[in-house]
Amino acid sequence: MSGRIDIETIEKIRQRIRVCDYLSVAQLYLKDNFLLERPLIPDDIKPRLLGHWGTCHGINVAYANFRSYFSDDPNFSFVLGPGHGFPALQANLFIDGDLLRVDPKATLDKNGISYICKCFSWPDGFPSHASPYTPGIITEGGELGYALANAYGMVMGHSEKTIAVLIGDGELETATAIDSLNLRDLLSGSNNGRILPILHLNGYKISAPSIYARKSERELNELIRGFGFTPITVDGDDTEKFQLALAKDIKNPFYIMKTDKGYGGPNRYHEAHQIPLKNPKVNEEELRAVEDWLKSYGAIEILNNLKGAAL
Ligand SMILES: Cc1ncc(C[n+]2csc(CCOP(=O)(O)OP(=O)(O)O)c2C)c(N)n1
Description:
By secondary structure, the protein is an alpha/beta fold. Helices cover 39% and strands 12% of the residues. The chain has a single domain (7-304), classed as 3-Layer(aba) Sandwich (Rossmann fold), CATH 3.40.50. The strands form two sheets. A five-stranded parallel β-sheet has the order 1-2-3-7-6, with helices on both faces. Strands 4-5 form a two-stranded antiparallel sheet. Strand 6, helix 11 (239-247) and strand 7 (253-258) form a beta-alpha-beta unit. The longest helix is centred in the first third of the chain and has 23 residues, at 7-29. The mean pLDDT is 96. The structure holds thiamine diphosphate. Residues 54-55, 82, 84, 142-145, 168-171, 174, 200, 202, 204-206, 210, 261, 273 line the site of thiamine diphosphate.
């Protein structure tokens, strides 16, 4: 079950995050030239930009860290609340080969990369949110709030299972999500598996400040303790400390993962929720900014060398 905390592992996690961030941005913007084999031109950009960037980096960070730490545990699962961050979920399902198992076009090569990017938010392609077509999805991805309740249901009677559940800080404002924290009292018996909630504290709910991000650290920690969990705050972008936090032997941990909404993109916080640069098809400056943004991940060489094998 326990992960390794060595330089190679940390570097692999960081690399995976960069690749998934790249694929998230490429899905949102590109209809051609997915690996930037030539400078971007307006015709490479989708005519209608429809999707959510702001939450994607945090999803990629949580997915990579937990997946790595629990890589030896066949009974580990990751449940995602904010289904609007579908480009990130799709990127992870793609590079792990999970999508290929249900969709023969999602091959781990240039063709597969082109397929998932072009078809995201595209007529007759993939929807902008997680959907029943997505492997492992059990509720439609556009409605926030059910992730914890679903996960508690999944571990009932399955003591072998461990499930990490990513909940948005805006999502935790839904009655369903906050009340689901009470399920710990009902389902913490030895017959049932383990739930590891992760609050994605990126500060914003759409473009307004989230309530939980505006509470003091002490107030938030006390709230979490009141539900019977032990709060552990982690900086999403400090991979080493993240892995060390996962290795701590803590009863009923509740991870508070901090990231800046839209981290890595051209703007952050309230401006980053959906599409940060809205007119790259007609605005040359924005087109170059999308290109620089994509290049900043240093992911193209890694993606060019996928050659059929998952990362
Ligand atoms: C039940 C429900 N209420 C409202 C919405 C509309 N909505 C879509 S995204 C979003 C913000 C979610 O904030 P958060 O969970 O913090 O995600 P992030 O900021 O990381 O995108 C809201 C309110 C929804 N999808 N479902």
